[in-house]
Amino acid sequence: MTLSECYEEMGADLHEVLRRLKTEERIGKFLKLILKDTNYESLCKALEEKNYEQAFTYIHNLKGLAMNLGLTPLLVPAQELCEELRDGEPERELKPLLDEVAAAYQKVLGIVERLD
């Protein structure tokens, strides 16, 4: 799968990322790093332990990664969960938000794994 096909399947804008990162090689290199990133797993563990301060850090990192790489399908739910955790103790049930992040994260990983 080409980088262009990857972004198209994700419903993301490769041209916007190219404007910032300049080359497809650089984007591909950084995109493949998401396969080794541990923020999602750490987020899940922190939420399980009700450590909302740490959970905020991990979702904020994941949101930043999604923003920098133009991973719109992941960015949108990550932003929502990030805002819910920003002030510590959440005011609403987090499971539906985490489920949205999980689905988007798995979709992105599945697509990136097929990148040439």
From TrEMBL:
Signal peptide: none annotated. GO terms for biological process: phosphorelay signal transduction system. InterPro entries: HPT_dom_sf, Sig_transdc_His_kin_Hpt_dom. Residues 41-93 form the HPt domain. Gene3D superfamilies: HPT domain. This is HPt domain-containing protein.
